[in-house]
């Protein structure tokens, strides 16, 4: 048997699934990673291949039938892929093949074809999108937890809505047309999933979101980032967490469209980029329209974006940039941990309070200087006409109450001393050269202990 490529990592292998004999893996590790996805197709693939004599339509000179896959939005078992036999017609004069399956996708006139290649396996996806395509729950289950690049429809690509038929492609012509089709295999479902995720750049793996079992997220193109939830999303998180771990597709073009670079993070030595994420939840209370102060503290000292460049949306509340959630990721695309972002937010809040306190004291000093009196004067300055000139009376300076001066130094700044000490401790704990495998903590490994500011203890 000629070697085939592993469906997960692409390495050559001769190991195949003992049941369907249609999925190849190079190791037990890759088989386990693909298990959840493979279970959706293994039994149906086995039935289709074992019943070729009964199910396969007879071929003709220019017509052959190839095994295809369908995600039908109208089937009772619509959440699972279906195996179908699709008629293909070979046109000898044009050296191309045409698949005839308009009936499989609803019989509509608007057919769109897409091609995608992964590990040297090419597939063709066809859909009758129409004007207002409906959601395909089978596909949306496979890519749940992701966020699509237009920031409005979750991870669900508009082009793959409605019913979808997938065909295996054996050979393409020079003008990117199909020269020959092939039967689908179980490994092609992984190729299809990669196509479904082509426009997805974020996967939320913390808070309410459990890890998507179908997506192999621990691949080189994914890095760990942090989402700072606004109050609307924070109130619906179980457990409640404003700082949420997410995984970021480093190869996606959306990452290059960041909106802010945190000045504070540059000072500390971990340059962070920020991008606003529109809130897709219905806001229930006035409080949920309040600014996202945690994210704004990270932007202290940073030039804000031109309001004309805000992302368009259908709801006016999304235009308020301060109350949105924010995506935070490292400029060097290395892994970023929640504790690092929390520590820098604390540092940013301290700097903001300190700057406000300094400005207040300067303003108070300026106003007191206007009314300042020379030291040693016993009485208020007065003028008396004596015929020869002005006579001044001395007035002693008022007594200074030390406790009152301390009260005026700024209560907010004094309270922030412990917070900034905690921030420094956290930043020392999480060094810049953080181990990648240690940071990518999506398998349920316990998070490192977090130092509570000012307490000297971990929690």
UniProtKB/TrEMBL annotation:
Citing just one GO molecular function, the answer is:
zinc ion binding
Q: Domain MYND-type, which positions?
A: 6-42
Among Gene3D superfamilies, the record links this protein to: 6.10.140.2220
Q: Which domain of life is it from?
A: Eukaryota
Q: Which residues form a coiled coil?
A: none
**Where is region (Disordered) located?**
382-412, 438-459
**Signal peptide as annotated in the record:** none
Could you tell me the keywords of this UniProt record?
Metal-binding, Zinc, Zinc-finger
A Pfam family that this protein carries is zf-MYND
Show the InterPro entries listed in the entry. Answer: Znf_MYND (IPR002893)
Name of the protein described by the UniProt record: MYND-type domain-containing protein
Q: Which organism is it from?
A: Mollisia scopiformis (Conifer needle endophyte fungus)
